[in-house]
Write the structure tokens for this entry.
Amino acid sequence: MLAHEVEILLVEDDPDDIELTLHALEQGHLVNRIQVVRDGAEALDFIFCRGGHSDRDIDCRPTLVLLDLKLPKVDGLEVLRQLKSDARTKTIPVVVLTSSKQENDRLECYLLGVNSFIQKPVDFDQFRETIRQLGMYWLLLNQPPPAGAAAARRAEYEDNRAG
Amino acid sequence: MGSRPECLHPLGWTTVFAAGSAGLMGLAALVGWHAGIAWLIHVRPGLSLMPYNSALAFLLCGAALAGLVLGRRRVAMIGGSLAALLGLLTLVQWIFGVPLGIDQLFMRQVDPLTPFPGRIPLDAAFCFLLAGGTIVSLGARPLRHQAPPVAAVSGSVVLALGATALAGYLVGLPTYAWWPVTTRMSTHGTVGCAVLGLGLVSWAWQQQRSAGGGCPRWLPLPVGLAGLTATVCLWQAVGAVEQVQLERIVQLTGLTSRQAARELFPLPPSLVPYSTLVGGLLLAGLLTLAVLLALMAQRHARRAEQAQAGLRRSEEALRQTRDELETRVRERTAELERAAEELRQREEMLRRLNQELEQHVRELTEVNRELESFTYSVSHDLRAPLRHIDAFSKLLLEEASARLDPVSQGWLGRIREGAQQMGRMVDELLELSRMGRREPERRPTDLRALVEDALAELKPETEGREVAIQVGALPRVDCDAVLIRQVLVNLLSNALKFTRPRPRAVIEVGHTVRDGQSVIFVRDNGVGFDMQYADKLFGVFQRLHRREEFEGNGVGLATVQRIVHKHGGRIWAEAELDRGATFYFSLGQPQEARAQTAKATTAGRS
């Protein structure tokens, strides 16, 4: 069984951005399995295997989460907070990919434990290059947290809940 | 000055009565002489007659006294002087024994009792001289201080003479026996003299009263004098009785002299004349003493009363002072209340102003919050469409380049350029807003290090160019290093940009003093600008050069100015077209900066 059935979870509401991001990722030939969710609530459902994603196994974690900040329903910061405050998901690398580089957003994200903060450049050439480097780094270069450890953490978590 | 009859004091009425009765008596005697009515002349047969001149003198004196009392000065002067003249001439006749022919001047008179018929008796003449003279002197100089005592003294002497003469009639004693030859005063004449004297005394008293003196202090003087006069007269009279008795003995025995009679009939020495003298003097002295004591008692009482009145006045003054004080206290209290009210109003105003200020602060906070959310939106939402425009244009260029002619491809390139430029503008605007909202955190900072840091950042822009950068001595200043570094980056970046056409760029950073203020400058030998556009230099999106010549959006200098102003400083530029430009900026002192910021805030709100 594959540890990562989904390599990248893209949390993005804007269809244009989705198309452009997917386009950039495809052109870099980096990933095949991308899951796109359109708002923060769905993102949380997917990550925590709830709602429409309840049939999913929580251990099949995405390799990388690309998170926009301005999202419908639940905003990106809230998604990040919940993801990083749960023992089962806090090791998933999260890259915030947003239009803004506002200082307070940046600071808040890092305080919540974001792994990287990227501003989408206006210039599409730069954007494509950014996405390419990002994929290269997080999917190929970077070593993900060990899956066993995650499973151990999960057992620990469930014991705590039962106790 | 005479009192008016309608408001006369009893003393004044006494004078009027005295003047009237003396004058009427004189008039009656005159009538008697003219009409031949005997009883009007001598009262009873055998008694002395009143000579015509005496009657006339009484009438004159009465009229004069009445004139004095009633304020008829002319009557007083004429009557008084005529009476005094009659008395004086008669006295001259008596004393020097020279007949002046005045005795029978107005009326022929026969009097068997006297060798000088019609002559005014000695004592009466003296009375007329005294009374007339006094009245004249009083009429001539009214209101003199010594007038009342003079009138009182002469009046009392006249009174004493008249009374003594009357007493002689009543007790059967002779008068003025010591005078060699004289005539006895008529009975009613004696009364007239006494009344006249009384009138003068009462006039004097009344004058003293109206001058505000109460009981006159000189009263013992006339009393004593009257007593003395009466005593001397009585003594004389008593002495004369002995002489008369000796005379009788001489006549009855046929002896040649009184001396012989006395030797023949040695009478036991009589003490009567001496006891009369001593008793009279004693009586007069006691009377004077009594009056003196009464006066002193009265004076003491008056003083006590004055003291009482003084006490009352003091009490009144004290009461007034207290009232005034109370009034003042009331006024002062009212004043204080007014001041308190004013203070209260001011406090109220201050409170209102404070509320307004708080309201302003709330509004400002609200506006700030809106600005925040606006910048947030701009930064998030405005950039997204720009990204999409650029991206899809690029994709179009890549995917459909075969189907597009070069002109269309150029247009797509222009679309991308526009989008990218707008993206830069949005970024710069956000940067400007960020810088503007940041409060400077002042710390002592080495400006030279900041300049070197900025130059390091700008290093790529100098590559392939000949650039001479001279950094002079720079002070340590109190400033926000992050912000001032941005200022230096922007200014140096401009200098590098506008010296690009020069084969050798010369850029100078230094420190100087202008108008007593420490000033940092950045000078270049670039293209400069026309000073007439200097005021546009620091405006947002203001550019003095075409975009094709020099890139940029006109936000850099606006950011610089905002940072300098935040520091309480000033920025300005001096330039000449094609001859380079120099940018100067000062950084206000910390306190000064705060003050200026406060002023700017106030000015901004109003």
The mean pLDDT of chain A is 83. Strands of chain A lie at 8-11, 34-37, 64-67, 94-98, 116-119. The domain at 8-162 of chain A is CATH 3.40.50.2300 (Rossmann fold). The longest strand of chain A covers residues 94-98.
